[in-house]
Structure prediction request, 61 residues.
Amino acid sequence: MGQADRNRDLVAIAIRGDGARVPVRLPAPVGVSILGRLELLGLGLIALLTGSRREPGGRRR
Prediction:
């Protein structure tokens, strides 16, 4: 069962400028260093803390 999951293609969903969602195939995963993972985690936290939210009226908060 675990082997079947490894043969699947990785796909991401990209959103174009006109709002259309397009599947994008990703290359096979490569090894990432611990420093690289920490950098991504830090950037994700910063984006989460400083990200803007849209209110129902369309104004940024």
